[in-house]
């Protein structure tokens, strides 16, 4: 339920855009499809965050706060300034995540170990590998997003953002899980097989 509420605003953004783009629904405002979809995104991210807040004992985790604030910021700028801003949000955020991981790695800091180390005991070399893999993933996703903004249609960008980037991220995370399984304590990995 929590993951569904976290992803719902972004899925709704893409769905509304495509329903408007295909004239399945029409709104007589004269606004561009991406503007209407951004309005839906802004409203839903606030509503879903409020629901999450109450479901999680009146608190949001750090990532939920970041996504709420960043989405409100970029959606508001899109509505007030330029429709292109919402497109660059993904590139900027993924680039920042990737660069933060690379800089931390270069300074011998492992933020993934800091975040997950209490729940997942791994050798330092594995944490280093994970840090580089995730940094590469974030930079790659930022690059794909930038390419689509510059060279593909708006509809193609919305399709990638709303319906492809989430499954790609899930598959990448599952691949990380397969990579990590050999480092889990033997009794835990045997329990997971049942």
Q: Which labels suit this protein?
A:
8 helices, about 190 residues, 2 domains, globular, mainly alpha, about 0% strand
Give the helices and strands, then pairings.
Layout: H1 2-21, H2 33-55, H3 62-80, H4 85-106, H5 111-116, H6 124-151, H7 154-180, H8 186-193
Q: What is the radius of gyration computed over CA atoms, rounded to a whole number of angstroms?
A: 19 Å
Please work out how many helical segments DSSP would assign. 8
- What's the β-strand tally? 0
Distance between the termini: 24 Å
Sequence of secondary-structure elements: HHHHHHHH
How large a portion of the residues is in β-strands, by DSSP E?
under 5%
Overall mean pLDDT: 90
Bulk shape:
globular
Largest sheet: none
Gist of the model:
The protein is an all-alpha fold and 194 residues long. 79% of the residues lie in helices and 0% in strands. It folds into two domains: 83 residues, no CATH class; 111 residues.
Overall description:
The structure is a single chain. The protein is mainly alpha-helical and 194 residues long. It folds into two domains: 1-83, no CATH class; 84-194. The protein is 79% helix and 0% strand. It is built from eight helices and no strands. It has helices at residues 2-21, 33-55, 62-80, 85-106, 111-116, 124-151, 154-180, 186-193. Helix 2 packs antiparallel against helix 3 (62-80), helix 4 (85-106) runs antiparallel to helix 6 and helix 6 (124-151) packs antiparallel against helix 7 (154-180). The radius of gyration is 19 Å and the shape is globular.
């Amino acid at each position: 339920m929590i993951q569904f509420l976290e992803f719902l605003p972004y899925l709704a953004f893409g769905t509304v855009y495509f329903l408007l783009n295909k004239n399945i629904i029409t709104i007589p405002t004269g606004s561009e499809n991406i503007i209407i979809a951004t309005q839906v995104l802004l409203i839903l991210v606030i509503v879903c965050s409020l629901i999450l807040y109450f479901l999680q004992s009146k608190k949001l985790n750090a990532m939920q706060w970041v996504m709420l604030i960043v989405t409100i910021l970029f959606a508001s700028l899109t509505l007030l300034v330029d429709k292109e801003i919402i497109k660059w949000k993904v590139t900027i955020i993924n680039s920042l995540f990737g660069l933060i991981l690379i800089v931390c790695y270069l300074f011998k800091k492992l933020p993934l170990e800091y975040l997950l180390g209490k729940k997942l005991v791994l050798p330092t070399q594995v944490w280093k590998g994970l840090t580089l893999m995730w940094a590469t993933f974030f930079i790659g996703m930022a690059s794909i997003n930038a390419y689509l903004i510059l060279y593909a249609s708006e509809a193609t960008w919305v399709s990638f953002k709303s319906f492809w980037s989430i499954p790609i991220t899930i598959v990448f995370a599952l691949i990380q899980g397969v990579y990590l399984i050999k480092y889990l304590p033997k009794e835990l990995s045997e329990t997971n097989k049942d």
